[in-house]
Amino acid sequence: MRLQTFLITLSIILVGCLTSTTAAAQDGSEHRYEFQCQGLETPGNEKVFCELLMGFDPHMRISYDRELAHLRVLAYLPLDVNEVLALAEQVGVTLVPRRTPILRADLSNE
Q1: Mind listing the pLDDT tens digit of every residue in the chain (110 residues)?
Q2: Domain assignments of the chain as residue spans, ordered by start
């Protein structure tokens, strides 16, 4: 009986933790970032860098326009821009933050 009570309590705690983590990641707040980008010349480089960025927020949306060298990020968790810049530097990508607001429609096509 004690084991059964323990397992039920443990299950409730785990479900609560998982639910709160998902809710925190998708609480509806959006954080938009835009960067001028150099160093993503090939689709392979772009893919690797985008996968590294997803480590900050696995639910983020990333859009890269190779012609304009613009990287747009829509994150659901706030990002530390200095950490993003440091990560980019480690893999040979140069990012310059831009202050231009991004429209939600810019990321909906991808």
Answers
A1: 665 554 455 456 655 544 444 445 556 689 999 999 999 888 998 999 999 999 999 999 999 999 999 999 999 999 999 999 999 999 999 999 987 554 555 555 54
A2: 31-108
The CATH code that applies to domain 31-108 is 3.30.70.100
CA–CA separation, 33 and 75 (whole Å): 8
Determine if residue 3 is left, alpha or beta; phi over 0 gives left, psi from -120 to 50 gives alpha, anything else beta: alpha
Number of H helices, E strands in the chain: 4, 4
Nearest residue to 66 (alpha-carbon basis) of 91, 92, 42, 96: 42
